[in-house]
Amino acid sequence: MAWIDHHPDDLIERSEPAQALDWLRQQSTLDAVALGKLDLFLHHWVLLLLQRPADAQGVLELMSLCQVARSRAAATPGAEAMDQRWQVFEDLLEAKRLALRAAAAAPAAPLRHEPAIRQFIQAQAQQRATQAALAAHLGLSAGRVSQILGVLESRGRVLRQRQGQENWVSWATQAEAQPAPAQPSAKTPSTAAAPLHLAVQVFGRAA
Amino acid sequence: MRRVVQLLKPGSEDFSPRQAWLRLWVLAGDQPRLNAWEQQRDAQGFDAQVEGLFALIDDEKPVTLELAQAQPLALIRALDQWLAAMQRPAGRTLATGRAQTQYTEEGQGYWLAPVFQAARQTSAMATQVTQRALWFRHHVAIPCRTSQGLEVSLQPSAGLLDEALSELAARQEGELKAWVAHFNDGADVAWTRDIGTAGNWRTVSVEPAAQRQASIADTLQRAQHSGAVVVVFPEFTVDLQQRRVIAEHLIQHATGSVQLVVAGSFHEPELGGNPLQAYNTAPVLVANGLELFRHRKLRLFGDEAHGAECAQIGNTLHVLLTPLGGMTVMICKDYLDGDDRVRTALHEVLVDWVWVPSYGNATTLKLHKQRARELAQVRVGLSTLVAQTQNTAMDKTGRLLPGFAQAAGPGEPMDVGDDGGLVSLTWRRMTTPALDPGRRPALKRIK
């Protein structure tokens, strides 16, 4: 039985992207059934990889799978919709890859406002501050503070979280700053102790 | 300058630091103005001026018109550094290069792109007076359309290619391994003059096909084994069917070292169109066989007396923005021709790497080397790889003429053998040199 002939539930539960890639490389075109099954498989794995904290290699492998699937779909009449959908999958994975790449980058020189931001946050009772409070403290506009925090967030220095009408900022501790070790074969999403912003859960710190 | 000040005014509706940077770039493009700015510069106090302006921008304090007019070069340097500091680590986003991300100044669209190669600042022209590279160290403005009317497209690298180049770019200096492909297998391009009425010629295939397909696969395997990241095939050596061999090889071997392939170039009719509608195209593929873009030759080979390529000409220069800087592809005469449309293209579209499939004779190769040296050392400061093959229509018995590579900066061209070969293109990241306030003007004459 060919890999694609299994029930989608079994494909998802019992096989890895590498097996799908091996199968796809042997194909020249895909029929409608194969397109549908492959889409379910890709959808499942994209969501899984987006939730994994630090599986850079897994992300690259799944990007490869999307690309080969698209090139095979390109040779299949009527597969344009799937091609577009899988392009979006690829875009999401690329964003995740860039976030992981940024997290692994060498530390950059601190921003001028960085010490003041850290000091202010750590002086708060709950070790977190709203962006509005930070802006008032620094004497900067909301937009400028958002820009600075965006850079700090991409460097893993702060965590941002939306709560009610406010954007809360906390300083990332060392443990929070370091992603968990990659677990290539893990199939369950990571479960963080504290609820984080969806973007942080999905893309890591550089969302 | 009034507009620059307005664009930097905190709280202003027009507030846009990048637009202000671009405005300064455009203003500095006027050499008499830039010269006046350079002549009025306070060399002793320059670093302090930069620091002061940086702090103003960083703290959202207004830059007054008087200050901007008194210290325009310090403002350029400060704004350029500030934009670099505000760049997120993965600054190239999926939106990079889209029409919406252009900035327009004086009716001309531009993209802001980061500078990568240190050679950009050390080329002979860049160190002379009235050159923007001296002041705009971290970014360049890439025009969406050159002064000669070439359209420019920009796209970011992604996936496996970006990952591989990011690994390299994490170091201060290094080398990019590339494979200059060349065939010595007896297969050759076949032509026809039967298309159209002008007596021009069009490539139709490379024969014997099986022989060339085997050679292509062998070339890619050797490139993989040698650790090459980039492979460039010569012009008219890979026909339209044989391109599939390359794509399929990349699909089957995506985990190897090769991440970017310029699949030669060949005459390619437009699908379902008029037979006269064909272009000399060079597809650029990445791992998994995905095509990033397809360059269309800008300057055709030939003349009225002997006939020319039977093809339309392209009008777009594609720039791939990677962690190692900008890359582009030019086909043969696009790169070396003296015609204005292409001659200044690389002076305006400031990329770091040019990949060139070529078909020609010894003179062609000599001209390529001259051009590569000029672009590496005198102007721009970029690296070139030319994959050439002998023009057998002109000289069937001539010696083989494989290509070469020339790294940015000082150095000699690197030749390869008759079966092609690996070249290591060294690079060094751009760093901001500390200015010595006590330095005296250099009086050494620059040729």
What does this 3D model show about the protein?
The complex is a heterodimer of chains A (207) and B (447). Chain A is mainly alpha-helical and 207 residues long. Chain A has helices at residues 8-14, 17-25, 32-51, 56-74, 80-104, 114-123, 131-138, 142-154, 174-177, 198-203; strands at 128-130, 158-163, 166-171. Chain A has a three-stranded antiparallel sheet with strand order 1-3-2. The longest helix of chain A is centred in the middle third of the chain and has 25 residues, at 80-104. Mean pLDDT of chain A is 82; it is low at 175-201. With 447 residues, chain B is an alpha+beta fold. Chain B is built from 14 helices and 21 strands. Chain B has helices at 2-7, 17-28, 31-40, 46-58, 65-70, 72-85, 119-122, 159-169, 209-226, 242-252, 333-336, 340-343, 345-348, 362-378; strands at 103-105, 108-114, 139-143, 151-156, 173-180, 188-192, 202-207, 230-232, 260-262, 266-269, 278-286, 291-296, 302-303, 307-308, 316-322, 325-329, 353-360, 383-390, 404-406, 414-415, 421-428. In chain B, α2 packs across α6 (72-85) and α4 (46-58) packs across α6. The A-B interface holds A 25, 56, 60, 63-64, 67-68, 70-71, 90-91, 94-95, 97-99, 101-102, 105-106, 108-109, 111-113, 139-141, 144, 147, 150-151, 154-155, 206 and B 10-11, 55, 58-60, 85-90, 92-94, 158-160, 162-163, 166, 170, 247, 251-252, 254, 287-290.
SSE arrangement:
The complex is a heterodimer of chains A (207) and B (447).
Chain A: H1 8-14, H2 17-25, H3 32-51, H4 56-74, H5 80-104, H6 114-123, E1 128-130, H7 131-138, H8 142-154, E2 158-163, E3 166-171, H9 174-177, H10 198-203
Antiparallel strand pairs in A: 1-3, 2-3
Chain B: H1 2-7, H2 17-28, H3 31-40, H4 46-58, H5 65-70, H6 72-85, E1 103-105, E2 108-114, H7 119-122, E3 139-143, E4 151-156, H8 159-169, E5 173-180, E6 188-192, E7 202-207, H9 209-226, E8 230-232, H10 242-252, E9 260-262, E10 266-269, E11 278-286, E12 291-296, E13 302-303, E14 307-308, E15 316-322, E16 325-329, H11 333-336, H12 340-343, H13 345-348, E17 353-360, H14 362-378, E18 383-390, E19 404-406, E20 414-415, E21 421-428
Parallel strand pairs in B: 4-15, 5-8, 8-9, 16-17, 17-18
Antiparallel strand pairs in B: 1-2, 2-3, 5-21, 6-7, 9-11, 10-11, 11-12, 13-14, 15-16, 18-19, 19-20
Helix pairs in contact in B: 2-6, 4-6, 9-10
